[in-house]
Amino acid sequence: MSEDFFYLDEGKIKITAASVGIGSKRWTSIKESEITEENYKCKMIENRFDILPIISNKKTIKEFFKTIENNNYENIQRLKISYKDILHLETPVREVIKGFVVEKKSFYFLTYQNKISGLITIGNLNCRQVQVYIFGLICELERKLGDFIDKNLEKHLLEKYIREKSKTNEKLAKIWEHYQDLVKLDLENNLIEHIYLIDFFNIICDNDLNFLLEYSKKEWKSLSSINDLRHQIAHPNRSLLDKKNTIERLWIRIEKIEDLTFRINQLNIK
Q: What single DSSP character describes residue 207?
């Protein structure tokens, strides 16, 4: 039946360049016929834009104004849009982020049917859609880490570990106490369900499970920055990118998540 297609959908999060960027019907631009010596600069300063599309007299978009240095409006170039400046509007946001880092870009014009139809900049990444995309990556990783520990560390060893650590760790002490209460009420569930992401990393490291995933201790400890990204996503009103949390740092963390997820998946292949 036709509706079976919907029941087979895995619910993968699809965030595209168009989801994050802005379409040409909503962006701020300047008409070629209206350009004077200073008015384009005023428009860029007023809106704090580093990119200003130019609408030609034929109503096409082939040029743009761009600051040489971000947020510095003393020197502005008038440039033609080249093939290096464009992406299809359905490009996954992952590839957009990668492009910003690998190609050292700060913007892309978005195309549809070979026409310029929108624009995406690094600043556009501070939005809900990108947070949803990253949360999806972290959520999948957390589930896989939980399953990995469940399969490779016997239940009594995990309980012993949490019990011992709870003597000096207040957070784990509360987890252990709550878990014990559930056990007494015959509501016992999987202990792993109560554990936080950072605890997963510690459990795996302290029990040498990292070697199953072919990470050294040093390499494994470097993955803790994934937890920092999780903290950012847990506070959606905060900017994802700022002076400290750069686009380069975001991409490194995304790659760490993808690499770890890949290794767990490979381990599960029989």
A: T
CA–CA separation, 139 vs 228, rounded Å? 14
Phi, then psi, of 91 in degrees rounded to 5: -60, 130
The contacts of residue 99 (CB under 8 Å, 6+ apart) are: 87, 105, 108
Q: For residue 72, what are its two tokens?
A: 């510095």
**What would the pLDDT profile of 7-42 be if each residue is shown by its tens digit?**
666 666 789 999 999 999 999 999 999 998 789 999
Question: Coil, strand or helix: which one is 10?
Answer: coil
DSSP type of residue 136: H
Amino acid at 216: S
The angle that helices 247-268 and 225-233 make with each other, rounded to 10 degrees, is 110
**pLDDT digit string, tens, across residues 102-137:** 999 999 999 999 999 999 999 999 999 999 999 999
| 3-state secondary structure (DSSP) of residue 107 | strand
Model pTM score: 0.89
Cα 97 from Cα 125, distance rounded (Å): 9
Say whether 229 sits in a helix, a strand or coil: helix
Cα 192 from Cα 172, distance rounded (Å): 12
- C-alpha to C-alpha distance for 90 and 129, rounded to whole angstroms: 14
- Residues 264, 136: Cα–Cα separation, whole Å: 17
What residue type is assigned to position 229 of the chain? Answer: L
Contact in structure between 118 and 109 (CB atoms under 8 Å): yes
Contact 107, 51 (CB under 8 A): yes
Taken in order of first residue, the domains within the chain and their CATH numbers are 4-123 (3.10.580.10), 128-268 (no CATH)
Closest by CA position to 258, among listed 19, 97, 21: 97
Token duo for residue 68: 């040489």
Cβ atoms of 80 and 63 within 8 Å: the answer is yes
